[in-house]
Design goal:
alpha/beta, Aspartate Aminotransferase, domain 1, Aspartate Aminotransferase, domain 2, 15 strands, binds pyridoxal-5'-phosphate, PyrdxlP-dep_Trfase, cytoplasm, adenosylmethionine-8-amino-7-oxononanoate transaminase activity
């Protein structure tokens, strides 16, 4: 492994990393994956508790998906998607619309989450230009939002850690304060939430609605913000006000979609249909980069005209509609159906919750444990009473991450939030191992 690590560090710049860290903590070179485990060149196994950045659904090297990919690779690897089409793309669209919120009917393809966000923003902007609402040029997004790394997606993102330095390049976004249930200033006992925090969004929309093209939001779960979870009431109110002021609602289901929150899409909790729904990550069960922007007819119709009116959406990516990705996505949806994944996850989610709650009782640094479906998060704080967070420079999460890796679990915390988002094939025994290691690592770090 050492040799490969040296060769890696000669040329490779790893994502979301300070490469200097790799001097003392070189990259773990993975030889193979099986189920919830990744295995390195020395044969050491790591339980992938974060589904390799929230993409993996049915385990690494899943036989059904491997076979679907192999079958497709032997037929067609890629073809231009302008004026051409293929069965995997057609089948994928039919299948995904069966499980999407009612009222969504047209689909544009991208090749990763950020590109789906760019597409939705551009479509919303152009839509309003073409229906005679040319003043609607601005976007609304929440504090702590995360929508990707390309300049448009970064502009709507609210995590300063990622976008502060790029401010001069980004477009101006209206940014109301988002929900913060753990430190909720409205309901200290947190028993009677009516999404009072929506007042910030309401105020922003009432004040600027004539200029607003769309609100983009991560439904119910702000992952990169630290697995922040909030009430469906917020989404219901948002849908209502967007309807009232002719504002598009873009649901970024890139991380929350495909069963992570306990339903196929998080929007289902609020029984709303967004105007655009962006999906990626779990779409291909962690196999290939692919994304979709699923939208209502009214958007598509506003672009449908003679070519010379210049109403076309002249956006493309070379790998748009890649058949390998589509075939894998079709098989992913087949697995959801054949194996009744959403219902099976209910029991697994309960087991994760029980397993964590039993073990964290005596840790004085646990601010809260929150869970939504197959996502569980422990927020560590300096002081339980005041909820004072640790200084990010202490890198508490990073130290715990390193301890847990030694013990065979890949956690990759978000700051001081240690979270679990495992592949759905995880067994009860593996859940116990994952939570044991996480809690032991926390205790070891705090010398408890
Ligand atoms: C909610 C959300 N939107 C967009 C993205 C960007 O997706 P990608 O990393 O595929 O560009 C992410 C990635 O984590 C995400 O969590």
């Amino acid at each position: 492994m050492k040799q490969l690590q040296e060769r890696d560090l000669k040329h490779i710049w790893h994502p979301c990393s300070q490469m200097k860290d790799y001097e003392t903590f070189p990259p773990i070179v993975i030889k193979k994956g099986e189920g919830v485990f990744l295995e390195d060149m020395n044969g050491k196994k790591y339980l992938d508790a974060v589904s390799s950045w929230w993409v993996n659904m049915f385990g690494h090297s899943n036989q059904r998906i491997n076979d679907a990919l192999y079958r497709q690779a032997n037929k067609l690897e890629h073809a231009i998607f302008a004026n051409f089409s293929h069965e995997p793309a057609i089948e994928l669209c039919e299948k995904i619309l069966e499980v999407s919120p009612k009222g969504l009917s047209k689909i544009f393809f991208g090749d990763n989450g950020s590109s789906a966000v760019e597409i939705a923003l551009k479509l919303s902007f152009q839509y309003h230009q073409q229906i005679g609402k040319s003043k609607k040029t601005r976007f609304v997004a929440l504090t702590d939002a995360y929508h990707g790394e390309t300049i448009g997606a970064l502009s709507v993102s609210g995590c300063e850690l990622y976008n502060k330095i790029f401010k001069p390049l980004m477009f101006d976004v209206i940014r109301p304060t988002g929900p913060d249930c753990f430190r909720c200033p409205y309901n200290k006992d947190r028993k009677h939430c009516d999404a009072e925090c929506f007042e910030h969004m309401e105020k922003a929309i009432i004040s600027d609605h004539e200029e607003i093209s769309a609100v983009i939001i991560e439904p119910l779960l702000q992952c990169a913000a630290g697995m922040k979870m909030y009430s469906p009431i917020y989404l219901k109110k948002l849908r209502e006000i967007c309807d009232k002021y002719d504002i598009n609602l873009i649901a970024d289901e890139i991380a929350a979609g495909f069963g992570r929150t306990g339903k196929m899409f998080a929007c289902e909790y609020a029984e709303i249909t967004p105007d655009f729904m962006c999906v990626s990550k779990g779409l291909t069960a962690g196999y290939l980069p692919l994304s979709l922007v699923i939208m209502k007819d009214k958007i598509y119709d506003a672009f449908y005209d003679d070519y010379t009116t210049l109403k076309s959406f002249l956006h493309s990516h070379s790998y748009t509609g890649n058949p390998l990705g589509c075939a894998v996505a079709v098989e992913t949806l087949n697995i959801f159906k054949d194996e009744d994944i959403i219902n099976k996850n209910i029991e697994k989610a309960r087991y994760i919750e029980k397993s964590v709650l039993e073990k964290i009782k005596d840790i004085p640094y646990v601010g809260e444990y929150r869970q939504l479906g197959m996502v569980g998060a422990i927020e560590l704080v300096k002081d339980q009473e005041s909820k004072e967070p640790f200084d990010w420079k202490d890198r508490v999460g990073y130290q715990i991450y390193k301890i847990a890796l030694e013990k065979g679990v890949l956690l990759r915390p978000l700051g001081n939030i240690i979270y679990f988002m495992p592949p759905y094939v995880i067994t009860k025994k593996e859940i116990d191992f994952m939570t044991d290691v996480a809690i032991d690592s926390i205790k070891e770090y705090f010398k408890l």
